Amino acid sequence: MTYHIAVDIGASSGRLVLGQLVDGSLQLEEIHRFSNGFTEQEGSCFWDMDYLLNEIINGLQQAKLRGIHECTLGIDTWAVDYVLLDAEGKQISRVYAYRDHRTDGVMEEVGRLLPPEKVYAKTGIQQLPFNTLYQLYAHDREELKAADQILLVPDYLYYRLGGRKMNEVTNASTTQLLDLAARDFDAQLLEFLGLRREQFAPLTEPGEDLGFITQELRAEYDLPECRLICVATHDTASAVLGVPAQKDRASAYLSSGTWSLLGVELDHPINNSRAMAANYTNEWGAYGTYRFLKNIMGLWLIQEVRRLDGGRFSFAELAEQAGECPGFRSLIPCNHPRFLNPDDMIQEIRQACLESGQPVPQATGELARCIFDSLALSYRSHLAELEELTGELTQVLQIVGGGANNGLLCQLTADVTGREVLAGPTESTALGNLAVQMIEAGRMADIHEARQTISQSFAIQSYLPQPVPGLAELLLRWEQLHPGADVHN
Ligand code: LFR
C-alpha cells in the first residue's frame, strides 16, 4: 500500500490529509476539510460524534474518487474528552466538551479529598480543570457506573470504524489516571471515582495494527480498503512527533494551535515538586518518550475574538491589522482561568485591561495585538521556567502548527524571548500521525528518520530576535499582571 491518510481533528476544524513519500520527500495533500466546534445545549457544551464520523466517511469517499482503493489510516484529536458505551457498544451519553462549566470548582473539591502532591507524583500530569479525572468526578454517578466502556474521542472513532476497543496511551495519559511507575490506570484513582479497570480497554501503543474498516461500512459507503493503524491519537503527541529534526542545537517546541503547548521531549518524566509548582505535565509520548510541557491559552483567544466579530477577517488579516497597531500597549495574563471559556471573550479581554488600568483595546486589530503581545510574553516566562526545570538552555524555539503561519506572533516571540524562532511545518500534527503509519508500513525505519525526512521536505522560516525598546520596563509591567496565575489556580 502506498497511500497513508491522517485524520486530524482539532477543536475548531478537522481534515483528512494524504501523505506520500515521493523520491524520499514527504508530500501532503489535503483531501477533505471540515469545521468543528462544540455546541451549547441546555447550558452545557457537547461535541457531536456522529458528525465527526460522518466527515471522516465523507473524506474517505473523496479519497476513493481520487483513485485511492487501499490505504492505511490514523486518527488524532484533542485530548481528555470521553465517550461512555453500553455493553452493545452504543454511546450512552452525550460527549461533554472539556470547556464545559460543569467542572468549575471540581479540581479544588477533588484536591481536598485527594492530596494533589500524591496525584502528581503518581501521574506527573499538570492540574487542568478539564482533566478527565475531574470530568468523570463531575459526571452523573449512575450513568458512569452503568458504562461498560470508557473510550476517549479518537479511541471511539477507531472503534466505530473498525470495531476494536482500545485506550491509546498518549491520549490516555491526559486523563490524569495513569500511573507512571505501573504504566497502567491507577487502581486508587479508579477506586476514588468508583470505576473498575475493565471499564477501560487495554492500553495500546502507537504503531499497532487495528485491522480493517468493517466490511459493513465499506459496503454501505463505498469506502477504500483502509487498514487502521493506531497512531499517537492525542493531537499534541502527533504534533511533537512531527517536529523536524534539529541540527545539534538545543531546542524547545511550541505546538501552536487552539492551545500553545510549550515544552521539550524527554525520555524520562520530571514529576518533582518544582515541576508540580510550575504546573508542567508529563504526557506520555510514542516510542517511550514524554511530553514535558505546559498548556498556554493559545490561539483560542483570537479564534473567539474572530468568531464574536462575525468572522469578518481571516486570521492572516487579523495578524496584519495587529501589526499596524502600536505594540505592548495593553497586556493580559492570558493563562488566567477567566479566559478558558468566558461568555464573551472580547468583553473579558477589555475588562481585564480596564481592571489593570491599561488602555482598553477597541478595534479588532487592537484586540489581536493585545493577544499576540501577551502570548509572546507568556512564552518568554514559561520558556525560562522550562529551562530551569530541565536544566537545559534553549537556543532555538521550534514553532509548529497553524500558529507557525502567523509571522507577527513568530517575530514577537523571537524578540521577547531573545531566541531564534524556526517556524513550520504548519501540518506537524498530520505529519506525526503519518510518520507512525509509515514506520509501521516499513517505509521509514524510525522516528529519527521520519523527522529527518520532515526537515528535508518542508520550508522552515527563521525569525531572528530584534531588540525590543524598553524591554526591562515592559517585563516589569508584565510581572505586575501576575502572568503566573494559571489555569490551575
Ligand atoms: C490541543 C490539546 C491539548 C490538550 C487540549 C485539551 O489540541 O489536545 O494538548 O490539553 O487540547 O484536550
From TrEMBL:
InterPro entries noted in UniProt: ATPase_NBD (IPR043129), Carb_kinase_FGGY (IPR000577), FGGY_C (IPR018485), FGGY_Carb_Kinase (IPR050406), FGGY_N (IPR018484), Rhamnulokinase (IPR013449)
Sequence ranges assigned to domain Carbohydrate kinase FGGY C-terminal in this UniProt record: 252-439
Origin superkingdom: Bacteria
CDD domains: ASKHA_NBD_FGGY_RhaB-like
Span of domain Carbohydrate kinase FGGY N-terminal: 3-242
Molecular function terms from GO: rhamnulokinase activity
Enzyme Commission number: 2.7.1.5
Keyword list, A-Z: ATP-binding, Kinase, Nucleotide-binding, Rhamnose metabolism, Transferase
Family the entry assigns: Belongs to the FGGY kinase family.
Protein name as annotated: Rhamnulokinase
The organism of origin for this protein: Paenibacillus silagei
